[in-house]
Amino acid sequence: MSILDTLTVPSGLPERYKQLPIEEMKTQISTIKKVMGDRLYLPAHHYQKDEVVQFADDTGDSLQLAQLAAQNKQAETIVFCGVHFMAETADILTEDNQTVILPDMRAGCSMADMADIYQTERAWKQLKTLFGNTMLPLTYVNSTAAIKSFVGKHGGATVTSSNAMAMVDWAFTQKERILFLPDQHLGRNTAYELGVSLEAMAVWDPINDTLEYEGNYDDVKVILWKGHCSVHEKFTLENISDIRRKHPGINVIVHPECSYEVVEQSDFSGSTKMIIETIEQASQGSKWAIGTEMNLVNRIIQQHPDKEIVSLNPNMCPCLTMNRIDLPHLLWALEEVLDGRKTNQIKVDRDTSLYAIKALDRMLERA
User: 260 — phi, psi (to 5°)?
Assistant: First the structure.
């Protein structure tokens, strides 16, 4: 389901949930969790609100949570507090007798929506006329099940921000070129780190069906899909200059979904897990500006009062689609599950899952 689709899809949330006092909702959620016990598993992404995270059985990034869901054979139902593509991955990796629920079907991902299967199939056909059989597709796990399936069908693999370098390195042992979907920034930053020059990177524009590149096509090594994270792309060079001026000696750490220019001017860059661990291991009194989603930054600030931590962009908003999951939607989802209803079930068809698993397995074999 695309972000545009979510604009026309009603929340489905019954009106009475909007009127419930916060403490009553918390009590009811806790009670349902106790009643269901091991039959229920509730993973929450790092970017979720604190009001949701407090009830999580596990927190983590999207693939980590999907893997934990797959390892949990006791749970009959997984209520996934994240966005649509994450719940899809959980459904792909879990057993047929397990049900995956997304508390709010409007919780999508703008990045994942920047590469749909029709655009991708069309692009692949046109790129093959330019580069023949020299390309291997890779997709960030922040993509739809259909894109993961496409990549798996064509010999490629998924990647995470943690293992992108290892997977891009592997891809170059398979083919001369890679097509990297859907986040151009992660693809560019990773390839550059591996020694691929910017001059050897082209950008595919899926809206206009054009390859953005000036030079000889024979020199192209990486074809980047023209997509991005709407949160991480908002961190700028001006943010870095401003924060260094206001906080001399501060360390700037950003997610690799940020632009190449921002990553280059930062002191550190890495996955959500790397950011969390770096701050945990940092010395008392050290100063940090973090360039990632605001809910997570605020949580890190609360967890480390012994350090001076700020957001790289103090005007940054949380991930709006992730924030659609809140206490009322979580309670509603859990009460529906308790009553035996599969409201907001995420189900990936068998054919799509078959090849998506191939893409995921190729990555997990090298994890």
Answer: -55, -45
DSSP type of residue 105: T
Written as one letter, the residue type at 61 is: D
CATH (domain of 53): 3.40.50.10800
Q: For residues 224 and 245, state if they share a domain.
A: no
Residues 220 and 118 both lie in one domain: yes
Q: How far is it, in rounded angstroms, from Cα 280 to Cα 190? A: 24
Phi then psi dihedrals of residue 337, to 5 deg? -60, -45
Strand partners, 285: none
pLDDT digits (tens, 9 = 90+) for 185-221: 999 999 999 999 999 999 999 999 999 999 999 999 9
* Residues 198 and 146 reside in one and the same domain: yes
Phi, psi of 161 (to 5 degrees): -65, -20
Look at residue 60 and tell me if it is in a domain.
yes
CA 238 vs. chain centroid, Å, equals: 25
| pTM of the model as a whole | 0.89
d(CA 100, CA 80): 7
Domain boundary among 176, 210, 229: 229
Do 149 and 199 share a domain, yes or no?
A: yes
**Structural domain range at position 150:** 112-229
Task: Report the largest interatomic distance among the alpha carbons of the chain, rounded to a whole angstrom.
Answer: 64
361 in a structural domain = no
3-state helix, strand, coil in the chain (%, to 5): 50, 15, 35
Both tokens of residue 348?
Answer: 């990936």
| Cα 79 from Cα 102, distance rounded (Å) | 6
The residue to which tokens 């998506």 are assigned: 356
**Length of the chain as a residue count:** 367
3-class SS of residue 77: strand
